[in-house]
Amino acid sequence: MVSHAVLEVGRNVTIQDYSFFQLTMPAPKVSIGDNSVIGRRNIITAKNLIRIGSDVLIGSDVQIIDHSHGMRRDTLIRLQKAEIGTVEIGDDVWIGAGTKIIMNVKIGKGAVIGANSVVTTDIPEYAIAVGSPARVVKYRE
């Protein structure tokens, strides 16, 4: 963790065993709202901003990452700088076990993400999304 990293944890938050937060340069911030649960063995990796709302349930073995590796053809992979973005998860969201959430994604309030999904695009409020890549299959009633 870098000296200026910010980890904000709301009231009544549960972070279960073996969850890992990696906050690395340049200016990492992770914010977790009230009454949220981070399941076992989660990996949350921030170089910029990951915002998790209130009343969010995150199953076990979930990865949330706000950055990716560069992939330009003209530079060796190992020499490329990270591409940095954000991840925003709204209030009252349920993220199933084994899900991967990639940079520059917003998951709307009340959404449900099925187990083992890979979220690569925004998910609307109250949507139920599943798969790899995650696709909306219906909405909460």
Which short descriptors sum up this protein?
7-stranded mixed β-sheet; 19 strands; mainly beta; 141 residues; UDP N-Acetylglucosamine Acyltransferase, domain 1; 5-stranded parallel β-sheet; globular
Polypeptide structure, described:
By secondary structure, this protein is mostly beta strands. It has one domain: Hexapeptide repeat proteins (UDP N-Acetylglucosamine Acyltransferase, domain 1, 3 Solenoid). 0% of the residues lie in helices and 42% in strands. The protein contains no helices and 19 strands. The protein has strands at 6-9, 14-15, 20-23, 29-32, 37-38, 43-46, 49-52, 57-58, 63-65, 67-69, 82-84, 86-89, 94-95, 100-101, 105-107, 112-113, 118-119, 127-130, 135-139. The strands form four sheets. A seven-stranded mixed β-sheet has the order 2-5-8-13-16-18-19, with no helix packed on it. Strands 1-4-7-12-15 form a five-stranded parallel β-sheet, with no helix packed on it. Strand 18 and strand 19 (135-139) form a beta hairpin.
| Highest CATH level, the class | Mainly Beta
Strand order of the largest sheet: 2-5-8-13-16-18-19
Q: By helix and strand content, what is the structural category?
A: mainly beta
Provide the number of structural domains.
Answer: 1
Q: Note the total helix count.
A: 0
